[in-house]
Structure formats: structure tokens, C-alpha cells
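User: Hi! I'm working on a homework problem where we have to compare a predicted structure to a textbook description. Could you give me the structure for the chain below?
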Amino acid sequence: MQKGVAQIFGALLIIWAVLPTGAQEASTFRMVAQGDLARAMEGRKTLTVDAGGGMILEISTGQGSWQQNLAIRADGSRIQELEGGRFIAFARLESGAATYWVVSEFSGGPHCCGRYYFFSRTEPGQPVAYLGLTEGHDGGPLPLEGAFISRQGRLFFKSLDNRFDYFHSSHAGCMLVNVPATFYLMTPTSLMIDNQPFKAVYLAEVKRVEGEIEQQAAGRQEKPRAILKPCFGSKFDQSVFADNLGQLLAERTILYLYAREDENAWQTLEAGVQQYYQTTQWLGELRREIQEKLAESPY
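Assistant: Happy to help. Predicted C-alpha cells:
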């Protein structure tokens, strides 16, 4: 087994380096290894990878052509079994006394889903624990290198929030796919969404969206009657955005809410609807629906 593991390990892209960080804050972590599981699995039915630090990844082909199984072994014991689409990459990080492993997966299927699984060892000699996984976002997983961020002396992982896909639009026409970015706080014993340290990120996106709103408004020939228009019927949930400007107003609102500027969120939405549409029809319903979607899971 050791020989096979060594051969596969050599086929992976392995990086031993300190991860670059911004000039404003020193890194609280370093990425010590990463590997391309998808490439190493090509042409194989099984794959065994030594991810370092006592962690072994065992990938096998599942029942479907796209499905794979991933067994996680640590310190000689199987600690987790995962069924997924295809497992794409892994990374190992060190932060203080703790070690983290992250495995990315692409579930496959239309418009879905990049996800990330997290494991940790609190300190040398302690057992490896499964911390959980992220919510899925549209498309394949993002590269792991560059997804980890030091902020306020803590370690975060950047993913994408896709809860507004199909929001009064088809997937192809939706401007809210994977909007906005979402940040997971990583600790040696937990994984949780904590976007509040990234207020400046969301407000910078607000400025970008406001520029797009101005461009859309400048190119208009006339004002639609309302921000939404009937599609499959006359009910609110059967309506779609009358134009892209309406989607941009919704995006700005969502970004303000993630920045915890609720008053600005609703005031600018109301002002925008009053300015760019003939009536404020559906404004109250749209606000309630945004609030309901945000209540579905932490943000």
C-alpha cells in the first residue's frame, strides 16, 4: 500500500509554501499541501492519496458514471464516508497548533454544485474530526488556493451564496447566481458562516452595482410599469423582473443586507423602484420574499 500511495501522491500537484496574504494583515495560517484529485483519478476506479498529517483519502467510483465515494482515514481509523459527484482537490493548512484539511467536490447536474468538506486536528496527538461542509454554489468548486483569508486574527474560507438563483428569473437570465460571496469562519472545532468581518467587501460591491444601475438607466427608452411583470400568470410568485435594472436593484439590496446596513437596503430599494418604474407595485412583496430567503439559512 505504501508504494501505491507514494506513486499517486507524486502525481498530484503538491505545494509546500506560505500562502501569500495582503499587506494589511499577517497570515494566521499557511497552506502546506494541496493536490489535484480529479487529475489523479483519471482512468482509475480507485485512488488512495496521503494528504499528510495522518490523513488518507480513498476515492472509488460509485454506481453512476459521475458518482464517487470518498472514505477518510486518519491515524489508522475510518472517520468519515462521503458520497458525492466528483472530488476535485484537497488542501492542508496549519494554523497555530491546529491542522485543517479541505476537500472540494463537484456534485454535477445542471446548475450545481460546488461544495467543500472540512476536517481538523486541534493539535498534534488529538483525533481528526469532521467539521462539516459548505452550502453548494452554482458550477464547479473554486480553486482552493486563494480561498483562505486571515481577518481579525481568524481564519476564513470564501465561498459563494447561491440562494437567489432563479429569483424571478430563469437560471440563464438570472443576475443573482452566486451572489454574494459568503465567508465561513474556521476554528479547530467548528465551521460556521460569519460574514460580518467582510462589510467592506460587500460595500465595494454596492459601488460596482450602482455604476451598472446608472448605465442601465441611461440606455432605457421608457419606464416599465413595475419592477416585476407577469410571466406564467398574474400572481407575484409567477412574475419575473421587467428588466435587468430591476435585478440590479435587488442585488444592491442584498449586498447592503449582507453588510448589515438594513436601513440603506430598504430605503435604496424603495427609492430605486420609485425612480425607475411607473408604480411601486410588488415592492412590499419583493421585500418580504428577500427577507424570507435570507431567513432560510445564516448569512
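For your comparison, note the following. The chain has two domains: 2-160, 201-295. Residues 201-295 form one domain. Good luck with the assignment!
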